[in-house]
Specification:
Aconitase, domain 3; alpha/beta; branched-chain amino acid biosynthesis; 34% helix; Aconitase_4Fe-4S_dom; 8 helices; 5-stranded parallel sheet
């Protein structure tokens, strides 16, 4: 029976499936940032656990880091809560470890969904999770990428798995050549306008067609980011 890319990646990573369809899905790459990880690491600490596979973790501070004032170092983070989250991530990675960590002030630091691909942490065929709603960006690289909540961040850290039910398949095919002045964002906004903001609920969307094939990787990331 023919399978979609989603079917193939899912099947390769399912550890166990219950009668109600709930599956234990193995996770290859766990992207971690400073907002959804503090409670997760604290949960590990309270339970006396360690991350199941430190080599899967790639971490960076990106939600609370200023774009100016770097010459002031950490004092450039003027909001106390933001500064605490950034320094807490530093402490947690020091305590628990990571395959790679790009802290505030590191020249490789940046938006987690940009530096993951930049640093080769996102690869085709991977299952990727991050405690952020834009994790679908990594789908541009032929990965199955889930945005997860804080309790799920802890679960993945502790077990290297995610509990999930398999979604339905949806193919969105975009044919033709973009008009002058149009970009990948115009494509995805047009799709959203057609199917609605909840049109993909319960589905994993694969994008195809000549217009998608003609996009740069950055363009494909834009489409998947808004999927």
């Amino acid at each position: 029976m023919p399978r979609t890319l989603y079917d193939k990646i899912w099947d390769e990573h399912v550890v166990h499936t219950e009668e109600d369809g709930t599956s234990v899905l193995y996770i290859d790459r766990h992207l971690v940032h400073e907002v959804t990880s503090p409670q997760a690491f604290e949960g590990l600490r309270l339970a006396g656990r360690k991350p199941w596979r430190v080599s899967s973790i790639v971490a960076t501070a990106d939600h609370n880091t200023p774009t100016t004032g770097w010459e002031r170092g950490y004092d450039g983070i003027t909001d106390p809560t933001s500064k605490q989250q950034v320094t807490t991530l530093d402490a947690n990675i020091k305590a628990f470890g990571a395959a790679a960590f790009f802290p505030f002030l590191d020249k490789r630091q940046g938006i987690v969904h940009v530096i993951g691909p930049e640093q080769g942490a996102t690869l085709p065929g991977m299952t990727v999770v991050c405690g952020d709603s834009h994790t679908s960006t990594h789908g541009a690289f032929g990965a199955l990428a889930h945005g997860i909540g804080t309790s799920e961040v802890e679960h993945v850290l502790a077990t290297q798995t995610l509990l999930a039910k398999k979604a339905k398949n949806m193919l969105v095919r975009v044919e033709g050549q973009l008009a002058r002045g149009c970009s990948a964002k115009d494509i995805v906004l047009a799709i959203i306008g057609r199917i609605g903001t909840a049109g993909g609920t319960g589905y994993t969307i694969e994008f195809g067609g000549s217009a998608i094939r003609a996009l740069s990787m950055e363009g494909r990331m834009t489409v998947c980011n808004m999927a």
